[in-house]
Write a structure and sequence with these properties.
By secondary structure, this protein is of the alpha/beta class. It has helices at 15-25, 44-51, 70-80, 94-99, 101-122, 156-175, 197-207, 226-237, 257-268, 292-298, 306-321; strands at 5-10, 30-36, 60-64, 84-87, 126-132, 178-184, 187-188, 210-214, 220-221, 224-225, 244-249, 255-256, 273-277.
């Protein structure tokens, strides 16, 4: 088999990772290896189901291991001799990171360091890091641009993603590895994690359960459909510019939480029961991506507006419930 590119996707059985694996295996000449520890942050069966269709594909390999295990990671890189790494494995979520900051640091910083060290040793030429809009924290300037100072992080999760970016920058400078950090803005779509707002709210409204609204519903997010994120990741994998870059990947629009709930209600044909709570520590009031740099250098062109994406997600959700 003539393999054009040997790619490692960490966290490749998860939400974004499994969509990327689908896209990469749909192209000729890629061999894709996934490393995932199938932890119980949410049901491991969901992640197994995400990649089940590829298990018999000779262009696909699955390694069930943890990126914190430096010996396992080193052996994986020695055996795989990857030219490209897309690092999406992480402990995710702002609120859980308040309860488990050490765990988040271990996975998101130490795990990233393990991968970069093995990439350095084995001559990986390109390292893509899945970062987060949360690094902007309570940024006073909107929309958020990649050259904004990020010294206002307000959650352990955001701090670990900022730390991962710093490691990528350092390894790029020292060892001539092209590293690209992609700041994802609130990704949703089929296979979205069940703990995330759109999935959780859809399930609760469908089941007639009250949904928690923190604050007055005025917080705003830049919701990004997963297909658009995958378009941006693929463009970053082919980027031939400078050795270190940061790109925002968002829709460059914001939607109020109250408006989001209304869209889900309309798509389900059911009304939500709202259970009001105080604002949560660590939550930011707004995320809003300036994507002009990604448009210019990556040809990034998000196409799915939230008004179209929410009905698509609800259709997928209903197909899983039938």
């Amino acid at each position: 088999m003539d393999v054009k590119r040997k790619i490692l996707v960490t966290g490749g059985a998860g939400f974004i990772g499994s969509h990327l694996v689908d896209a990469l295996l749909g192209e000729n000449g890629n061999h894709v290896t996934v490393i995932d520890n199938f932890n119980d942050f949410y049901a491991p069966a969901i992640k197994h189901r995400n990649i089940a269709a590829h298990l018999g594909n000779p262009s696909f390999s699955l390694i069930e291991s943890d990126i914190r295990e430096s010996g396992d990671v080193a052996r994986l890189f020695e055996d795989g001799r990857f030219d490209t790494v897309v690092h999406l494995a992480a402990l995710a979520g702002v609120r859980p990171s308040l309860e488990n900051p050490r765990g988040y640091y271990s996975v998101n910083v130490e795990g990233t360091l393990n991968l970069l060290e093995s990439a350095r040793r084995t001559g990986v030429s390109r390292f893509i890091f899945g970062s987060s809009s949360s690094v902007y924290g309570i940024n006073q300037k909107v929309p958020f641009a990649e050259d904004d100072t990020i010294n206002n992080t307000i959650s352990p999760y955001a701090a670990t993603k900022s730390g991962g970016e710093a490691l990528c920058r350092t390894f790029s400078h020292l060892y001539d590895i092209q590293t690209i950090c992609l700041r994802f803005f609130t990704v949703y779509g089929p296979r979205q994690r069940p703990d995330l707002a759109i999935h959780k709210f859809t399930g609760m409204i469908f089941d007639g359960k009250p949904i928690p609204m923190f604050g007055d519903g005025g917080t705003r997010r830049d919701y990004t459909y997963v297909d658009d994120i995958i378009q941006g990741v693929r463009a970053a994998m082919d980027y031939s510019g400078s050795m270190y870059e940061i790109f925002n990947l968002g829709e460059s629009e914001t939607v109020k939480l109250s408006e989001l709930i209304r869209m889900i209600e309309d798509s389900l044909g059911k009304k939500a029961v709202i259970e009001r709570h105080p604002e949560q520590p660590g939550d930011v009031p707004v995320t809003f991506a300036d994507i002009s740099k990604a448009r210019r250098l990556l040809g990034y062109k998000p196409e799915v507006k939230v008004e179209e994406g929410i009905p698509r997600f609800v259709d997928w959700f209903l197909s899983q419930r039938s």
